[in-house]
Amino acid sequence: MASLRLGVNIDHVATVRNARGASYPDPVRAAEMALAAGADGITAHLREDRRHISDADIDALAAITRRRGRPLNLEMAVTAEMEAIALAHLPHAACLVPERREEVTTEGGLDVAKGHNAITPVVQRLSNAGIRVSCFIDPDLEQVAAAASAGSAVVELHTGAYCDAVRERNPQAAAMLERLQAAAAEAARLGLEVHAGHGIDYETVKPIAAIGEIVELNIGHFLIGEAIFIGLGPAIQRMRALMDEARSVRAA
Ligand code: PXP
After folding, report:
1. Sequence-distant (≥ 6) Cβ neighbours of residue 149 within 8 angstroms
2. N or C: which end of the chain has fewer CB within 10 A?
3. Does residue 45 have an active-site annotation?
4. Residue 251: its pLDDT value, please?
5. Nearest to 27 by CA among 17, 37, 35
6. Gap between the Cα atoms of 102 and 93, Å rounded
7. Which residue ranges in the chain fall short of pLDDT 70?
8. Domains defined along the chain, listed by start
9. How many angstroms separate the alpha carbon of residue 128 from the centre of ligand 1?
Protein backbone atom coordinates (compact mmCIF):
# COMPACT_ATOMS: atom_id res chain seq x y z
CA MET A 1 0.00 0.00 0.00
CA ALA A 2 1.20 3.51 -0.81
CA SER A 3 2.51 5.56 2.08
CA LEU A 4 0.31 8.30 3.45
CA ARG A 5 1.50 11.91 3.50
CA LEU A 6 0.38 14.54 5.99
CA GLY A 7 -0.14 18.09 4.80
CA VAL A 8 -0.59 20.50 7.68
CA ASN A 9 -2.92 23.42 7.03
CA ILE A 10 -1.71 26.46 8.99
CA ASP A 11 -4.59 28.85 8.11
CA HIS A 12 -5.88 29.09 11.65
CA VAL A 13 -2.60 30.30 13.07
CA ALA A 14 -3.31 33.34 10.88
CA THR A 15 -6.91 33.41 12.17
CA VAL A 16 -5.60 33.88 15.73
CA ARG A 17 -3.09 36.51 14.56
CA ASN A 18 -5.74 38.44 12.65
CA ALA A 19 -8.18 38.41 15.61
CA ARG A 20 -5.96 41.14 17.12
CA GLY A 21 -4.48 42.60 13.97
CA ALA A 22 -1.11 41.67 15.46
CA SER A 23 2.04 40.26 13.88
CA TYR A 24 1.87 37.05 15.93
CA PRO A 25 1.40 34.09 15.98
CA ASP A 26 3.26 33.75 12.69
CA PRO A 27 1.96 31.05 10.30
CA VAL A 28 5.41 30.81 8.74
CA ARG A 29 6.91 29.84 12.10
CA ALA A 30 4.10 27.27 12.43
CA ALA A 31 4.97 25.90 8.98
CA GLU A 32 8.64 25.53 10.00
CA MET A 33 7.60 23.72 13.20
CA ALA A 34 5.15 21.50 11.31
CA LEU A 35 7.85 20.38 8.87
CA ALA A 36 10.27 19.75 11.73
CA ALA A 37 7.59 17.66 13.50
CA GLY A 38 7.04 15.35 10.52
CA ALA A 39 4.56 17.09 8.24
CA ASP A 40 5.28 16.18 4.63
CA GLY A 41 4.00 19.48 3.29
CA ILE A 42 2.24 22.73 4.10
CA THR A 43 -1.25 23.68 3.00
CA ALA A 44 -2.65 27.21 3.04
CA HIS A 45 -5.87 28.71 1.71
CA LEU A 46 -5.64 32.26 0.40
CA ARG A 47 -9.29 33.26 0.61
CA GLU A 48 -10.69 36.06 -1.49
CA ASP A 49 -11.52 38.06 1.67
CA ARG A 50 -8.02 37.35 3.15
CA ARG A 51 -9.68 36.50 6.47
CA HIS A 52 -6.71 34.44 7.62
CA ILE A 53 -3.77 33.86 5.24
CA SER A 54 -2.48 37.03 3.57
CA ASP A 55 -0.64 37.59 0.30
CA ALA A 56 2.54 38.22 2.30
CA ASP A 57 2.08 34.86 4.08
CA ILE A 58 1.89 33.11 0.71
CA ASP A 59 5.09 34.88 -0.43
CA ALA A 60 6.87 33.72 2.73
CA LEU A 61 5.42 30.18 2.70
CA ALA A 62 6.39 29.73 -0.95
CA ALA A 63 9.94 30.84 -0.10
CA ILE A 64 10.44 28.60 2.94
CA THR A 65 8.90 25.49 1.38
CA ARG A 66 11.05 25.98 -1.72
CA ARG A 67 14.16 26.47 0.43
CA ARG A 68 13.42 23.26 2.32
CA GLY A 69 12.42 21.32 -0.78
CA ARG A 70 8.98 20.56 0.66
CA PRO A 71 5.64 20.90 -1.11
CA LEU A 72 3.32 23.88 -0.70
CA ASN A 73 -0.31 23.13 -1.48
CA LEU A 74 -2.20 26.34 -2.26
CA GLU A 75 -5.95 26.08 -1.76
CA MET A 76 -7.67 28.53 -4.07
CA ALA A 77 -11.00 29.51 -5.51
CA VAL A 78 -11.42 29.23 -9.28
CA THR A 79 -10.99 32.95 -10.01
CA ALA A 80 -8.73 34.95 -12.30
CA GLU A 81 -7.12 36.65 -9.28
CA MET A 82 -6.21 33.36 -7.58
CA GLU A 83 -5.03 31.82 -10.83
CA ALA A 84 -2.64 34.75 -11.36
CA ILE A 85 -1.29 34.36 -7.81
CA ALA A 86 -0.77 30.61 -8.31
CA LEU A 87 1.02 31.20 -11.62
CA ALA A 88 3.24 33.86 -10.01
CA HIS A 89 4.30 31.54 -7.16
CA LEU A 90 4.21 28.13 -8.87
CA PRO A 91 3.46 26.12 -5.71
CA HIS A 92 3.97 22.36 -5.93
CA ALA A 93 0.18 21.87 -5.84
CA ALA A 94 -3.04 23.84 -6.10
CA CYS A 95 -6.30 22.56 -4.71
CA LEU A 96 -9.36 24.14 -6.32
CA VAL A 97 -12.05 24.80 -3.74
CA PRO A 98 -15.46 26.43 -3.83
CA GLU A 99 -15.69 29.69 -1.92
CA ARG A 100 -18.56 31.73 -0.60
CA ARG A 101 -17.75 34.80 1.45
CA GLU A 102 -20.46 34.18 4.03
CA GLU A 103 -19.38 30.61 4.84
CA VAL A 104 -17.38 29.91 8.00
CA THR A 105 -15.31 27.25 6.28
CA THR A 106 -15.38 25.36 2.96
CA GLU A 107 -18.80 23.83 3.39
CA GLY A 108 -19.07 21.51 0.44
CA GLY A 109 -16.98 20.28 -2.42
CA LEU A 110 -16.43 22.01 -5.74
CA ASP A 111 -19.25 21.23 -8.17
CA VAL A 112 -16.97 20.16 -11.03
CA ALA A 113 -19.85 18.49 -12.87
CA LYS A 114 -21.79 21.77 -13.06
CA GLY A 115 -18.79 24.09 -13.45
CA HIS A 116 -16.91 21.85 -15.88
CA ASN A 117 -16.58 24.44 -18.67
CA ALA A 118 -15.17 27.10 -16.35
CA ILE A 119 -12.95 24.75 -14.34
CA THR A 120 -11.32 22.75 -17.16
CA PRO A 121 -9.29 25.64 -18.69
CA VAL A 122 -8.03 26.68 -15.24
CA VAL A 123 -6.94 23.09 -14.51
CA GLN A 124 -5.20 23.08 -17.87
CA ARG A 125 -3.34 26.38 -17.43
CA LEU A 126 -2.17 25.54 -13.91
CA SER A 127 -1.11 22.02 -14.98
CA ASN A 128 0.76 23.40 -18.00
CA ALA A 129 2.70 25.61 -15.59
CA GLY A 130 3.83 22.47 -13.74
CA ILE A 131 1.44 22.77 -10.79
CA ARG A 132 -0.18 19.54 -9.60
CA VAL A 133 -3.87 20.36 -9.63
CA SER A 134 -6.44 18.84 -7.38
CA CYS A 135 -10.21 19.36 -7.18
CA PHE A 136 -11.76 19.35 -3.71
CA ILE A 137 -14.97 17.38 -4.18
CA ASP A 138 -17.66 15.66 -2.20
CA PRO A 139 -17.32 11.86 -2.21
CA ASP A 140 -19.67 11.52 -5.14
CA LEU A 141 -19.02 9.34 -8.19
CA GLU A 142 -20.34 11.96 -10.62
CA GLN A 143 -17.91 14.54 -9.21
CA VAL A 144 -15.01 12.08 -9.40
CA ALA A 145 -15.75 11.46 -13.08
CA ALA A 146 -16.08 15.20 -13.75
CA ALA A 147 -12.73 15.93 -12.05
CA ALA A 148 -11.05 13.27 -14.20
CA SER A 149 -12.57 14.64 -17.37
CA ALA A 150 -11.52 18.20 -16.37
CA GLY A 151 -7.91 16.92 -16.46
CA SER A 152 -7.26 17.11 -12.73
CA ALA A 153 -4.38 14.84 -11.65
CA VAL A 154 -5.67 14.62 -8.11
CA VAL A 155 -8.95 14.70 -6.22
CA GLU A 156 -9.21 15.68 -2.59
CA LEU A 157 -12.27 14.08 -1.03
CA HIS A 158 -14.21 16.29 1.41
CA THR A 159 -14.33 14.40 4.70
CA GLY A 160 -16.25 17.13 6.58
CA ALA A 161 -19.70 15.51 6.50
CA TYR A 162 -18.31 12.17 7.70
CA CYS A 163 -16.26 13.78 10.50
CA ASP A 164 -19.25 15.83 11.69
CA ALA A 165 -21.42 12.71 11.67
CA VAL A 166 -18.89 10.81 13.81
CA ARG A 167 -18.67 13.69 16.33
CA GLU A 168 -22.46 13.94 16.49
CA ARG A 169 -22.79 10.14 16.84
CA ASN A 170 -25.02 10.21 13.78
CA PRO A 171 -25.94 6.67 12.67
CA GLN A 172 -25.34 7.76 9.04
CA ALA A 173 -21.58 7.98 9.72
CA ALA A 174 -20.92 4.40 8.55
CA ALA A 175 -22.72 5.06 5.27
CA MET A 176 -20.70 8.25 4.81
CA LEU A 177 -17.47 6.33 5.30
CA GLU A 178 -18.64 3.89 2.64
CA ARG A 179 -19.19 6.83 0.26
CA LEU A 180 -15.60 7.96 0.88
CA GLN A 181 -14.34 4.42 0.25
CA ALA A 182 -16.33 4.12 -2.98
CA ALA A 183 -15.23 7.55 -4.25
CA ALA A 184 -11.58 6.78 -3.45
CA ALA A 185 -11.77 3.45 -5.29
CA GLU A 186 -13.40 5.04 -8.33
CA ALA A 187 -10.88 7.91 -8.43
CA ALA A 188 -7.98 5.46 -8.28
CA ARG A 189 -9.60 3.33 -11.00
CA LEU A 190 -9.71 6.44 -13.21
CA GLY A 191 -6.00 7.04 -12.58
CA LEU A 192 -6.41 9.97 -10.18
CA GLU A 193 -4.27 10.45 -7.09
CA VAL A 194 -6.53 10.53 -4.03
CA HIS A 195 -6.26 12.96 -1.12
CA ALA A 196 -8.73 13.67 1.67
CA GLY A 197 -9.34 16.42 4.16
CA HIS A 198 -11.59 18.63 6.26
CA GLY A 199 -12.69 18.22 9.85
CA ILE A 200 -10.30 15.33 10.61
CA ASP A 201 -9.40 14.76 14.28
CA TYR A 202 -7.73 11.99 16.29
CA GLU A 203 -10.90 9.86 16.17
CA THR A 204 -11.75 10.16 12.48
CA VAL A 205 -8.21 9.98 11.14
CA LYS A 206 -7.93 6.21 11.55
CA PRO A 207 -10.92 5.06 9.47
CA ILE A 208 -9.97 7.61 6.78
CA ALA A 209 -6.29 6.64 6.81
CA ALA A 210 -7.33 3.00 6.43
CA ILE A 211 -8.70 3.74 2.94
CA GLY A 212 -5.78 2.37 0.96
CA GLU A 213 -6.22 4.53 -2.16
CA ILE A 214 -5.69 7.75 -0.19
CA VAL A 215 -2.09 9.00 -0.32
CA GLU A 216 -2.40 12.39 1.40
CA LEU A 217 -4.43 13.90 4.23
CA ASN A 218 -4.68 17.66 4.73
CA ILE A 219 -5.45 18.57 8.32
CA GLY A 220 -5.60 21.98 9.96
CA HIS A 221 -8.21 23.23 12.39
CA PHE A 222 -8.06 20.33 14.86
CA LEU A 223 -4.25 20.36 14.97
CA ILE A 224 -4.05 24.10 15.59
CA GLY A 225 -6.67 23.75 18.36
CA GLU A 226 -4.84 20.81 19.92
CA ALA A 227 -1.60 22.80 19.78
CA ILE A 228 -3.06 25.11 22.45
CA PHE A 229 -2.99 22.21 24.89
CA ILE A 230 -0.01 20.06 23.92
CA GLY A 231 1.98 22.15 21.41
CA LEU A 232 2.01 21.97 17.62
CA GLY A 233 4.87 19.48 17.29
CA PRO A 234 3.36 16.87 19.65
CA ALA A 235 -0.12 17.30 18.08
CA ILE A 236 1.32 16.60 14.63
CA GLN A 237 3.38 13.67 15.90
CA ARG A 238 0.30 12.09 17.51
CA MET A 239 -1.72 12.54 14.30
CA ARG A 240 1.14 11.05 12.27
CA ALA A 241 1.32 8.06 14.63
CA LEU A 242 -2.44 7.42 14.32
CA MET A 243 -2.16 7.59 10.52
CA ASP A 244 0.71 5.10 10.54
CA GLU A 245 -1.16 2.81 12.95
CA ALA A 246 -4.25 2.76 10.71
CA ARG A 247 -2.09 1.96 7.69
CA SER A 248 -0.14 -0.82 9.40
CA VAL A 249 -3.32 -2.51 10.73
CA ARG A 250 -4.75 -2.49 7.21
CA ALA A 251 -1.52 -3.83 5.71
CA ALA A 252 -1.28 -6.65 8.32
N1 PXP B 1 -8.60 20.43 2.60
C2 PXP B 1 -9.26 21.49 2.06
C3 PXP B 1 -9.44 21.52 0.58
C4 PXP B 1 -9.73 22.55 2.86
O5 PXP B 1 -10.39 23.59 2.30
C6 PXP B 1 -9.45 22.52 4.25
C7 PXP B 1 -9.88 23.67 5.11
O8 PXP B 1 -9.19 24.81 4.71
C9 PXP B 1 -8.75 21.42 4.76
C10 PXP B 1 -8.36 20.38 3.93
C11 PXP B 1 -8.42 21.31 6.21
O12 PXP B 1 -9.61 21.22 6.97
P13 PXP B 1 -9.54 21.34 8.54
O14 PXP B 1 -8.97 22.69 8.85
O15 PXP B 1 -10.96 21.19 8.97
O16 PXP B 1 -8.65 20.24 9.04
Report:
1. 116, 120
2. C
3. yes
4. 62
5. 17
6. 26
7. 1-2, 101-102, 106, 250-252
8. 5-251 (3.20.20.70)
9. 25
Ligand 1 site residues (CB inside 6 A) read: 9, 11, 45, 75, 95, 97, 105-106, 136, 156, 197-200, 218-222
Of 9, 46, 133, the one to substitute when testing ligand 1's pocket (max ligand atoms within 8 A of C-beta) is 9
139-175 pLDDT, tens digit each:
999 999 999 999 999 999 999 999 999 999 999 999 9
Minimum CA distance residue for ligand 1 atom 1: 197
Catalytic residue among 89, 158, 195, 198: 198
Among candidate residues 98, 86, 166, 160, the one with its CA nearest the CA of residue 129 = 86
Task: Please tell me the distance from the alpha carbon of residue 75 to that of residue 86, in angstroms, as a whole number.
Answer: 10
**Measured between alpha carbons, how far is residue 82 from residues 13, 20, 85, 88, 95 in Å?**
21, 26, 5, 10, 11
Ligand 1 nearest-atom number relative to CA 106: 5
Annotated catalytic residue within 12, 45, 89, 195: 45
158 noted as active-site residue:
no
| pLDDT (0 to 100) of residue 186 | 98
pLDDT given for residue 2 in this prediction:
67
Q: Give the predicted TM-score (pTM) of the model.
A: 0.96
Instruction: Name which of 165, 50, 152 is nearest 99 in CA terms.
Output: 50
